[in-house]
């Protein structure tokens, strides 16, 4: 098995923004790609070889900007509307950006989709009901589904759910469903990537966790040891490690 080469560094651990629901801030990141063509006028000082008149610059072309193809996410449990709702909710519970990843960048929503199609199948009805009630409340309050609201409006809805004042929720109630969202967002952000979340190990880098280490030596277990100095290992990495047998053979 090919070994993942990810070296944790101090800069991986800097987290400038971590809010939960009320007062949450979000950074809108963007970039523009442009190009400039350099045009040179070819003027000769030799009157015997250059005809009189104005010289014409050679034609130039501007290459089209190159952008990465959009990432297409597939879902095993959620419908398109449900997926948009969960993704937006996780994005407000733990906001992030390309430079400071949060729950969405860690693909916590993909983790939950896979879990509801497997180990958490017993919670499927709760999620269908909860998302339906959540969007119905948003329609009553703002005439849009949760995924189409502004960040401030989404925070208002989540705060209402957390406080149990959002109406229309039943089995699970508003506060209970909020608790599920918060719990599974956390799981998806900090789980082993094997389960669909913690994409690019952003969750573990965020908290300085070295992952699934096969073993620790005495100095690494001492109080004050910087665990971020260890190479981050996933379950897949550990499976590929061949531990040497002792001389006795067992």
From TrEMBL:
It holds the Pfam family Gluconate_2-dh3. InterPro entries: Gluconate_2DH_su3, TAT_signal. Residues 47-59 have a biased composition (Low complexity). Residues 47-68 are annotated as: Disordered. The keyword Transmembrane applies. It comes from the Bacteria. This is Gluconate 2-dehydrogenase subunit 3 family protein. It comes from Dehalogenimonas etheniformans.
């Amino acid at each position: 098995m090919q070994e993942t080469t990810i070296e944790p560094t101090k800069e991986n651990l800097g987290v400038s923004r971590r809010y939960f629901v009320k007062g949450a801030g979000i950074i809108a990141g963007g970039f523009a790609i442009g190009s400039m063509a350099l045009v040179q006028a070819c003027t000769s000082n030799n009157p015997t070889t250059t005809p009189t008149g104005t010289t014409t610059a050679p034609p130039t072309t501007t290459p089209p900007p190159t952008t990465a193809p959009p990432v297409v996410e597939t879902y095993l449990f959620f419908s398109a509307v449900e997926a948009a709702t969960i993704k937006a909710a996780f994005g407000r519970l733990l906001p992030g950006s390309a430079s400071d990843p949060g729950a969405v960048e860690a693909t916590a929503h993909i983790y939950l989709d896979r879990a509801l199609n497997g180990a958490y199948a017993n919670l499927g009805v709760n999620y269908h009901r909860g998302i339906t009630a959540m969007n119905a409340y948003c329609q009553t309050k703002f005439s849009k589904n949760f995924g189409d609201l502004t960040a401030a409006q989404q925070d208002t809805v989540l705060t209402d759910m957390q406080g149990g004042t959002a109406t229309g929720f039943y089995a699970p109630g508003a506060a209970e469903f909020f608790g599920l969202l918060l719990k599974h967002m956390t799981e998806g952000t900090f789980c082993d990537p094997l389960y669909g979340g913690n994409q690019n190990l952003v969750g573990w880098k965020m908290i300085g966790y070295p992952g699934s280490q096969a073993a620790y030596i005495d100095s690494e277990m001492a109080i004050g040891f910087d665990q971020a100095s260890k190479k981050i290992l996933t379950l897949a990495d550990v499976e590929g490690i061949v531990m040497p047998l002792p001389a006795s053979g067992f």
